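Wait, mind explaining this?

_____
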Amino acid sequence: MRSFTSILYLVCASLLSLWCVVCFVPKTPKKFTEVKQPEKVKIIFVGDVMCHAAQLSKAKTKTGYNFNNSFKYVKTIFADADLVVANLETPLSTTPPYSGYPTFKSPAELATALSAAGVDVAVTANNHALDMGSEGLLSTLRILEDCGIKSVGTYPDKNSALTASPLFIECRGVKFALLAYTYGTNGIKEEDGVVVGRLDRDLISADLERCAGADCTIAFLHWGDEYSATANIEQQKLADFLHSRGCSIVVGSHPHTVQQAECSKREVTIYSLGNFVSNQRFRYSDGGIMAEVTVEKNGNDCSFWLNIIPVWVRQQDYAVIPKNVGDTLSMTAEQMAAYNLFMADTEEKFTPQF
């Protein structure tokens, strides 16, 4: 009996030991497939950067010029973006005298201020690109490069126009191709081999072919009717032409007033950003919009979202004032009236955006 009990004890102990082993064998973790999140890039496009005579006077210092005050209210907005692009509508130089309209020549310190504010790319193809001739075009490109600002739209020679256009920029894994063109240069012809991108469909088609491999192609067009609040038929046709050939984002300048914008998940058209900074004061011209475009890359496709940020220029110091800041500032009655009128006009144009 004792022998049977011993045997039974040993069997139970063995079974218990086996149960413990089975129960406490670590489980192999399940392997989960990592889902890659879409890449998102925020781009801010701002309108015409101009420098009239009154702005030169306001920025003059004992040792040169300082334009930093113009951009103090937008720096935080720029800092939140991955890429900031501005239309530079004036040649730059390190040699005075400087001049405003109708023949612009601005100090290099303007580029210094734009760089300090956070501008990454300057569009240089516009009707004032040759105001100071070929030397003005070349000095503008040199100054922008020295300030760390990339440029698109004007080139020192034909070879550069082929190799540097499109301008490729990669942000957060999204590859962009940037192109820029103007309808003309106020009748001034290129000399010494310099090149200004022209609104020519054959040229544009050839350039777009070189954009192969980019996730998103952006075209900047200097076009339309000055001071018109609405894009004309030619602008609409050209935008359709670009989109039909794979250009995702079309951004316009030249009218000095804000025009309509259109956005779908597949393409964006901003017909005119208006003035970013200038001394123009009549209705519709004393401000512009910052177009904030979010680009989301998912696989081989990109989707787009558009946010409109109105900005108004205070003549007292030529500060560019976004609406969220302007609504909190103390202004004179005259300033407040002009500010409110511009904001109301802009809100009416982009009612669905607000």
In short: The first strand starts at residue 39 and ends at 49.
